[in-house]
């Protein structure tokens, strides 16, 4: 019970709390091969753009740059 209380105390009060900081952390390197604008494109358009990029290139390099 004491361990459960300690774990609960470390959790954010709201499920979305901390997401902005997490988003900043995962996007910090700023190295991308390709971007889609999900605020302007629907999911199907994003998927088509990604598929086209994978099929026709150029070759992705971001992971090599980050390594």
Provide an overview of this structure.
By secondary structure, the chain is mostly helical. It has one domain (2-66). The chain contains 4 helices and no strands. The protein has helices at 2-10, 19-27, 43-56, 62-66. The chain is elongated.
List keywords for this structure.
mainly alpha; 4 helices
Would you kindly provide a brief summary of this structure?
The chain is mainly α and 67 residues long.
The main β sheet shows up as:
none
Q: Ends: how far apart?
A: 42 Å
SS class? mainly alpha
Helix content: 55-70%
Could you say how many structural domains there are in total? 1
Mean pLDDT: 84
Count of runs of 4 or more consecutive helical residues: 4
Low-confidence stretches: none
**In angstroms, what is the radius of gyration?**
18 Å
Topology:
Blueprint lengths: L1 H9 L8 H9 L15 H14 L5 H5 L1
